Amino acid sequence: MNNVNRYEKGIENITKLSGEQSTFHDVKGILKDISPRLSDLFVSFAFGDVYSGEELTLQQRELLTISTLVTQGGCDLQLKAHTESALKVGCTKEEIIETIIHLSPYIGFPRVLNGMLASHEVIQKFEDDAA
Amino acid sequence: MNNVNRYEKGIENITKLSGEQSTFHDVKGILKDISPRLSDLFVSFAFGDVYSGEELTLQQRELLTISTLVTQGGCDLQLKAHTESALKVGCTKEEIIETIIHLSPYIGFPRVLNGMLASHEVIQKFEDDAA
Amino acid sequence: MNNVNRYEKGIENITKLSGEQSTFHDVKGILKDISPRLSDLFVSFAFGDVYSGEELTLQQRELLTISTLVTQGGCDLQLKAHTESALKVGCTKEEIIETIIHLSPYIGFPRVLNGMLASHEVIQKFEDDAA
Amino acid sequence: MNNVNRYEKGIENITKLSGEQSTFHDVKGILKDISPRLSDLFVSFAFGDVYSGEELTLQQRELLTISTLVTQGGCDLQLKAHTESALKVGCTKEEIIETIIHLSPYIGFPRVLNGMLASHEVIQKFEDDAA
Amino acid sequence: MNNVNRYEKGIENITKLSGEQSTFHDVKGILKDISPRLSDLFVSFAFGDVYSGEELTLQQRELLTISTLVTQGGCDLQLKAHTESALKVGCTKEEIIETIIHLSPYIGFPRVLNGMLASHEVIQKFEDDAA
Amino acid sequence: MNNVNRYEKGIENITKLSGEQSTFHDVKGILKDISPRLSDLFVSFAFGDVYSGEELTLQQRELLTISTLVTQGGCDLQLKAHTESALKVGCTKEEIIETIIHLSPYIGFPRVLNGMLASHEVIQKFEDDAA
User: Fold this and answer.
1) Which end of chain D is more exposed for a tag (fewer CB within 10 A), N or C?
2) What is the span of the domain harbouring residue A24?
3) pTM score, two decimals?
4) ipTM, interface predicted TM-score of the complex
């Protein structure tokens, strides 16, 4: 796979995760204005290389991503984008909420609450849109 | 559910995760000598309350736990214990390894490598024991 | 102690820490709408189980909580709620400010400044209300 | 060097880094109202003691500071102030952007993106002012 | 206070915290061989400036330090040294253990367990020496 | 640039940073046994893509890497490998030591001391080998 393919594969995976229009597309666009180099590295490595591995499903990947983002803290933008993707690739609302609750004994309540508030905003919007 | 039940439920879940003898049982024992109060809180809350939720399978919980522990860093003892459990509840070696690889674009390679080295030690031992 | 008692004990401790109306009550309410399970775990474990230990006074607990929250960073909501409680259970303004200053050689100035700005907002409001 | 000299040296270094008027001067002012003791410790230790070392240039120090602040996350105010200084002491826009990109394999994209967005806001403003 | 006084004050406070011979004295010695500049900054700022504030007692400072060190993780050497000091300045074994337990709902069990194991080693040794 | 080239470029950069035999080569080897996929991602992305940017010199990159690794904590293996590289690409011992000292006001002494002890071990060995 050459670099053009890696980037295209990345865009393909982003579209699988989030449709034609999403926070990921927006972030890619903003990054491209600031630094095309960073935009390329981000799309090609994270979404082209890593998300193409077949050992895990996209549902598994999205819940694992929510786990790492809530643990790190301070990544509301990314957490919201991945909550959106989690719902789009078929994770249930209940799985996402329990994923965050599951972290309570590992990281404590402050980051669990922060994560829940950010993530739930997206879940709420998703349900309202579906209604 | 009263507190005795919560503790018993915790021990029951630990046994589901890791058999009759495991690092979790050892940690519980060590803790009991240092502080029975902490040992109780740990078993009852983490394993009694949280692991009893039915929205996620034990396989899902173990991979999510690996994600948060590798992200935090500095938790080799816990990461090894949960790698052991992940294998016991039926996660494949490939899923565990890809879970850690999946974190590369989110936390960077230093903690991914640290996590992989600790986790792989357990995987290796598990395979050797099975052979 | 059964689970109903743990929750009730938690509410009792929250009220000791913060009166009948406070950020803690608000957070509990918001959480209850999102996830009654998380709201219960939070109140019963953090405030029911942990705050009931008699080895430390509530003043000691509040200063220790400020120490861990400022160290973690990114927990302004929680830091403000616990600054409020610290003042209500009798910690002085001077103790709270020095607690944050004390962290400078351990965590550096960026998180100390962030913590001080958030915490001081509450101290200021408390003094204005008292005036 | 006595304490008055350390503070004066700190102010002198702040002025070298950021001119007569800057975020650092503002922060110092805000801190002085909250806690003169913290304001003094901050200026004397960080800028008086540490920045006076001659083993590194101010350009080197500012890029190293950007590295530690982006790594920590949650320090946008400080990151913007040091991006401003980096530009004032002669680091190029390209060096600053590549410094943040350089962190991708070490800390992952979430904190790299957060840092880039905060830092680029200052770079943009600097270029607009220069135009 | 000039710099010689700050350093002397630092040594005086280290001695109050830990007697004539302690891990702090050892660390200071090791640092002096590696970098006299860092050894001076460490003693003068941390122990000379910060520990001289009178708004908190040494007992309060030591428990707050244990809180920040357990929260950060990866600081066993420092945590052991401060557990030693906590005991020497009059904190009880029960207060130290409950300080670490108190952190469970704020940082989760992995770092609480790591901290407890390191800290308890010192408590054990202290009790054995006293016996 | 296709993927074979990216990997080759990565090896070329590793060799520039650390000679024909180094900790990086060892880590790559160990990783290859555990997961060829992770070994490839690591070499191609970190050393092939990122280190090939021409906006920063290798000396600058190595000091920035030391800053992020000391800030993260718990990465002694990586910190030692990059201290080795820093020395090989021409950073002086004084610059490396001051880089770590420079972090004191940003991250506090515990992680600065941990980093200094790990890094200095390599500096010492480097000087002994040169003698």
Assistant:
1) C
2) 1-55
3) 0.97
4) 0.95
